[in-house]
Amino acid sequence: xxxxxxxxxxxxxxxxxxxxxxxxxxxxxxxxxxxxxxxxxxxxxxxxxxxxxxxxxxxxxxxxxxxxxxxxxxxxxxxxxxxxxxxxxxxxxxxxxxxxxxxxxxxxxxxxxxxxxxxxxxxxxxxxxxxxxxxxxxxxxxxxxxxxxxxxxxxxxxxxxxxxxxxxxxxxxxxxxxxxxxxxxxxxxxxxxxxxxxxxxxxxxxxxxxxxxxxxxxxxxxxxxxxxxxxxxxxxxxx
Length: 239
Hints:
- The protein is 26% helix and 25% strand.
- The protein is α+β, with helices and mostly antiparallel strands.
- Helix 2 packs across helix 6 (225-235) and helix 4 packs across helix 5 (157-164).
- The longest helix is centred in the N-terminal third of the chain and has 20 residues, at 17-36.
- The termini are close together.
- The relative contact order is 0.18.
């Protein structure tokens, strides 16, 4: 079925995009586990809507206040005032990720599929954070597949990832197309390390492509985005 716009009316008024993204991630994991992955591999879904987690250190302290009677004449050292103190705002953007694990020596993450959310694109710091995450995966020889169907935010995370990796390349998706699917892997058999990418532009009303997901140097799985998208739409009764 053709790609729909999940972020604007009329569909946005009838279905939550978060629910659909979760269904799509589950459909991709199901396709991998039932039809594609060898026995020693498994796909898992990780979904988390951005939130801030605060830890109260006091809850880990026994007795609350330190005792004034330290015994044995041991002095309590008081650190000097900090030379810098400033407020920080840490955010955790949404996560819709399918990880492929190799359980033969592990489990060990060998591939990750990322479904982009609006929060991944809504500000420069979030875009940078996402690019660094993907770049870190690639540095560890973990292949990455990115799918961006977010129509309510501009920004091309594929282009930002290439900029972070200092890769100069012209692709169709760098010419103002903010919807795309891209698969990446690093090749270690040559010096220096090389990046390989398969990039397909997406458009509302058009069908979705099939892209490779590399789980080993000589083994890739064909991720059928069209089939999994259709399954997710059926699961959420989207026609």
